[in-house]
Write a structure and sequence with these properties.
The chain contains ten helices and eleven strands. By secondary structure, the protein is of the alpha/beta class. It folds into two domains: 170 residues, Response regulator (Rossmann fold), CATH 3.40.50; 120 residues, Rossmann fold. The longest helix has 17 residues. The radius of gyration is 20 Å and the shape is elongated.
């Protein structure tokens, strides 16, 4: 989606609670994330940069507070409640469906803006895409709806492959379930076997992929903040002799076989504008839950050579 369009969307959402009362201090943007602080650092930077691009100055025009569950989804409801009690003008969820649902569960008054790679309707966040309903809106890249497409692309480029592996962050439970279901069903329809390997942070990726090249002929990587370091993840796949696919555009440039999906960096730069302006007033019920930006496809077209 275009950045200008998203600015218009979020300008309205940030204004929902502000129209009713004068502010003696700058409005507070409350950021909520399931991931550890270091895993969402790039998203936080994108948000701050996006706000700066609109002319808003932190400390003058707004203040920010951040709450991270450190990977533990069970902490999200309490953290969301803290932001409401701190009188957040808007809550921005930085990563998982669980974070957005936790915020939605604790308030019907504070507007919530989410960004996700999954289908927000399937994730039980909104009533419909055109009319999200209530106090929630956001943007979805729909990358996770590409699970069957990813399997098909690997099957097309690696026709001799009999077994593919899928790297999943099981701590991101909602997304993991969608990923496992969609890729498994697609692989079965194509006569492929699947193997699921799990990691919940960057330090667990290499052990999860260790020896995988001897059992599987291709790898799909779940879209997740824990796997954002494309160069590192692609390096693990190449060293393990695994032709691999991920959504991030820079994954193929870093040595992966293929990238296919919405631009993660561009999407989050747009999402950075979630709380950008505080002037317009619009009913939250008509703010559109925007679909995916244009898909990006690139490929090295040179799968790593396999031993044996």
């Amino acid at each position: 989606m275009r950045r200008r369009e998203f600015i218009a969307l979020v300008s309205a959402t940030a204004a929902w609670p502000l129209a009713a009362r004068a502010q003696s201090v700058p409005p507070m943007i409350g950021y909520l994330a399931q991931a550890k602080p270091e895993e969402i650092a790039v998203l936080v930077t994108a948000n701050r940069n996006g706000l700066g691009e609109t002319g808003l100055v932190e400390g003058k025009d707004y203040i920010s507070e951040f709450r991270s569950a450190g990977g533990d989804a069970n902490l999200l409801p309490g953290l969301a409640t803290e932001l409401v009690q701190r009188r957040a003008a808007v809550i921005v969820t930085l990563d998982t469906l669980a974070a957005a649902r936790a915020a939605k569960a604790v308030t019907t008054a504070v507007p919530i803006v989410f960004a996700t790679g999954a289908d927000p309707l399937r994730g039980r966040l909104v009533e419909s895409l055109n009319r999200p309903g209530g106090n929630i809106t956001g943007i979805s890249a729909m990358n996770l709806e590409l699970g069957s497409k990813w399997v098909g692309l690997l099957h097309e480029l690696l026709p001799a492959a009999k077994r593919i592996a899928i790297l999943v962050n099981i701590e991101n439970a909602d997304v993991a379930r969608m990923m496992i279901t969609d890729t498994q069903e697609a692989a079965f329809s194509m006569g492929l076997q699947t193997e699921f390997v799990f990691a919940s942070n960057e330090g667990e990726i290499e052990p999860a992929l260790s020896g995988l090249g001897a059992r599987s002929q291709g790898l799909i990587i779940q879209t997740d903040v824990a796997f954002r370091n494309s160069e590192e993840v692609a390096g693990f796949a190449v060293r393990g002799k695994l032709p691999a696919l991920a959504a991030q555009k820079d994954f193929a440039k870093a040595g992966g076989l293929m990238s296919y999906g919405s631009s993660f960096v561009r999407r989050n730069a747009s999402r950075a504008l979630t709380s950008a302006a505080f002037s317009k007033v619009r009913s939250p019920g008509i703010c559109r839950c925007n679909g995916p930006p244009s898909l990006i496809f690139s490929s090295t077209l040179k799968p790593p050579r396999r031993s044996g």
